[in-house]
Amino acid sequence: MKGFGMIEINNVGWLEKDIPEIGPMDALLRPIAVAPCSSDTHMSHGGSGPAFNVILGHEAVGEVVKVGEMVKNFKPGDICVVPCCTPEWTAKAMQQKGSNNAHDFGLMKSFKFLGSKDGVFAEYFSVNQADANLVLKPENVSVEDALMTTDMMSTGFYGAEMANIQIGDTVVVFGIGPVGLMAVAGAECYGAGKIIAVGTRPNCAELAREYGANHIVSYKDGDLVQQILEINGGKVDSVIIAGGNADTMLQALAIVKSNGTISNVNFFDASETFTIPTYMWGLGMSDITIKGGFCPGGAYRIEKLLNMISNGRVKPGKLLNYKYEGFDKIPEAFEVMDKKPRDLIKPVIHIKW
Q1: Crossing angle for the helix pair 178-189 and 154-162, nearest 10 degrees?
Q2: 169-219 pLDDT per residue, tens
């Protein structure tokens, strides 16, 4: 089969691979819509270490082609939403904790499509433990809305979940790319009273307001910390970091209240180091909670997100503003995601077979 991926660091292109073998609990799918992600481009430049001849991609809606003999809930022809994280649910640590890092095989090993196996930018891809990791696409949910649950909505909403938002809280979201925009939407759904979003791109700022942001703050207008403190008349209840660098953590600590929460869903670069003055954490006595993690995997979570879309709570498909038709357009969409033109939010490729 044909797939698009990483030949070596800084060298992407088409690859020829065998069609994946599936086990008795697994499913084989072909994509009908995929979306490149900054995690894919980051990996292609060596951000996850050396890799060779790996098919990229982890955001997909697909059609089932074949299922293993133990699969009960799916059959060939079903249109399914594929979570970017597909845990091995039989792992003891998963049964105990149920998160991507509570896994018998190591840190983030549930994120298989960008780690231990070929991804979804292929004519065929496999999904382990299909009954626990696939979801039928509801008829009243568009393919584009469904596609955004697989990572962008799931990750952004996880940022809001970890932020411990209470009704009427003031929440700051650093970064209003696709994940940050979904964090804004998540904060609104969790009942935030005031949402302050940090970003500069005009179309992202416009969509952030549509998703619930009351204020947009830009570094171009001055010191971010000072702007936020002035807007709120003091410190805030929660901060969600969905973009930035190690300094963003210091900015978050400077604006969050004692007993507040900092929630991180941003991938920091391995070359960065956190250096936190002790006074910013109340000499260790401030009861500020710092959490960080990648979105949970599995079917149950995606079903919940699809239920929100199905009932009109959020429209994540609005993130997709660069649209392509055809499997052969994957390289073009990937290049756009890599170069990030100023008006880009998120690209999508629709595929017909």
Answers
A1: 50
A2: 999 999 999 999 999 999 999 999 999 999 999 999 999 999 999 999 999
Would you state the CATH architecture of domain 2-137+315-350? Alpha-Beta Complex (3.90)
Closest CA to 319 of 158, 194, 165, 146: 146
Alpha helical stretches, state H, the chain: 38-44, 92-97, 130-133, 143-148, 154-162, 178-189, 202-211, 224-232, 246-255, 299-310, 330-339
What's the token pair of residue 16?
Answer: 């020829």
Please give the Cα distance from 163 to 171 (Å, whole number): 9
Taking only Cα atoms into account, the Rg of the chain, rounded to an integer number of angstroms, comes to: 20
**pLDDT tens digits for 62-84?**
999 999 999 999 999 999 999 99
Segments making up each domain of the chain, as ranges: 2-137+315-350, 156-292
pTM of the model: 0.95
Q: Quote the CA–CA distance of 199 and 221 in Å, as a whole number.
A: 11
